[in-house]
Amino acid sequence: MTKSVSETLKRLDEQLRERYDPLGSVEGENGAYETGHVPHVARYAYLCTRYAGLDDIGIRDAENEAERYIPETYKDLLRHMNGARVLGVSLLGGIGGSVDRSGVGIGQPISIRYQNAVERPDYIPEGHLGFGAINGEWSSQGHLYLASTGEVELYNARLDMIGARWTSLLDFLEDEIPRRFSNYDEEGREIEKSKRLPGDTENWERLAQEAKEEGASDGLLKRTLRRLHRK
């Protein structure tokens, strides 16, 4: 029997709660929760934050927010949970045009708009939906895209470079989230030398830093030329 995204997410919810609730948890509304309290990171920091799912109207609004088509598999994810932050993986969701900064409850996800309509590199194929990111070291980060073919691709945040690929969103969820369990000890502290980025990302930090420095140099040159032009 073929597994669904919803079934996989329910199982991951159970695994995350069983593993990290002993460190401390917070219950939100409509199935939302935070688990894995890590006060050594920050007073109200948690390893996992899972937001409540969206109804059909919320899905439609999220699609308008992204300014592009959201495939059915990611709509299934959004119905179960409107994005999440899980062990260094950020999954995007809809914010409905406003950001809750009141501090009440567990807040909101990062808007699906940013990676699709605001900060979208030209080299990303048009049919790809940006749906999240994975933390790197200092300069590097992996950006997650769901291709129109159903595959998930992990791009360098600064370069046209793919470090990992999964056959589907379901495959990504079943492979990458459990892999990250081994990155943390029993107190929720990240283990030194844990592999933050999956796949062939050995040189991402160096390459991303070089791209950052090159971009800063280009920016300095452009600002200098503008000043000279005004004189």
Which properties best describe this structure?
single chain, SMI1/KNR4-like, 9-stranded antiparallel β-sheet, 6 helices
Helicity, as a percent range: 25-40%
**Rounded average pLDDT:** 88
Task: Give the name of the CATH architecture.
Answer: 3-Layer(aba) Sandwich
How are the strands of the largest sheet arranged?
A: 1-2-3-4-5-6-7-8-9
Largest sheet: 9 strands, antiparallel
Number of domains: 1
Descriptive account of the structure:
The chain has 231 residues and is an alpha+beta fold. The chain has one domain (5-230): SMI1/KNR4-like (3-Layer(aba) Sandwich). It is built from six helices and nine strands. It has helices at residues 5-20, 56-66, 72-80, 114-118, 169-179, 204-230; strands spanning 25-27, 33-37, 46-50, 84-86, 89-91, 129-135, 141-146, 152-156, 162-166. Strands 1-2-3-4-5-6-7-8-9 form a nine-stranded antiparallel beta sheet. Helix 1 runs parallel beside helix 3 and helix 1 packs parallel to helix 5. The chain is globular and about 45 Å long.
Question: What is the strand and helix layout of this fold?
Answer:
Layout: H1 5-20, E1 25-27, E2 33-37, E3 46-50, H2 56-66, H3 72-80, E4 84-86, E5 89-91, H4 114-118, E6 129-135, E7 141-146, E8 152-156, E9 162-166, H5 169-179, H6 204-230
Antiparallel strand pairs: 1-2, 2-3, 3-4, 4-5, 5-6, 6-7, 7-8, 8-9
Helix pairs in contact: 1-3, 1-5
